[in-house]
């Protein structure tokens, strides 16, 4: 049974990451520590320099979570002026999970950017665990996927997206964003994951701070996206 989503009781605030106050920053660090063990605050601070908006949520005056994200128009290989949504770090306290707050926070931050009702959109995110990848994995044109390695074109686009995120080391064959040498953090949540869901995550070294880049087109992929040809 799907959980019932209800965000009607929450208050939201979305601000540019470049203008977060000291109070906002302290709140994010506290929420990060509450949602992750070994929370890497350097990763949080880097996210604030690469993605342009952050959304906060409260209920009954109590902080509930935050989400960092962006929406941009960018030139991709063979695809000029494409709309991209760039998901970032999102922390939701355990008491407020499974209510739709993750999507509400990220969505507000994304659409505070440059995008407005595009005909086609590339949704992007970096994930360290299969549970976070499920929403993308359900789409037929998702990359990476267990059906085979990314095509040359998909690898080119993946590299371009990784560059936008500021990823220093990216493996286009596995879509692994190589970490800084220490974990981003381990979510304080129990997630049931099927064995086959781990397949594309096998190259991800969480202790090194790796993440898997996932990308998916909506409502459909450009012509030739899945063809295994170069040039």
Task: Explain what the structure shows.
The chain is an alpha+beta fold and 231 residues long. It contains five helices and ten strands, in the order βαβαβββαβααββββ. The strands form two sheets. The chain has an eight-stranded mixed beta sheet with strand order 1-3-4-5-6-10-8-7, sandwiched between helices. A two-stranded antiparallel sheet has the order 2-9. It is globular and about 55 Å long.
Can you give me a brief rundown of this structure?
The chain has 231 residues and is of the alpha+beta class. The protein has helices spanning 22-35, 41-50, 101-110, 130-137, 152-165; strands spanning 11-16, 36-37, 53-59, 62-76, 79-92, 121-127, 170-171, 176-177, 186-187, 211-218. It is globular and about 55 Å long.
**Helix fraction?**
10-25%
What is the name of the CATH architecture?
3-Layer(aba) Sandwich
Instruction: Please summarize the sheet with the most strands.
Output: 8 strands, mixed
Number of strands: 10
Q: How many domains is the backbone divided into?
A: 1
Rg, nearest Å:
17 Å
CATH classification class: Alpha Beta
Query: Could you tell me how far the N terminus lies from the C terminus, measured between alpha carbons in angstroms?
Result: 45 Å
The percentage of residues in β strands lies in: 25-35%
Unreliable stretches covering 5 or more consecutive residues: none
How many H/I helical runs? Answer: 5
Tell me, rounded to a whole number, the average pLDDT.
92
Order of SSEs, N→C? EHEHEEEHEHHEEEE
Enter the CATH topology name. Aminopeptidase
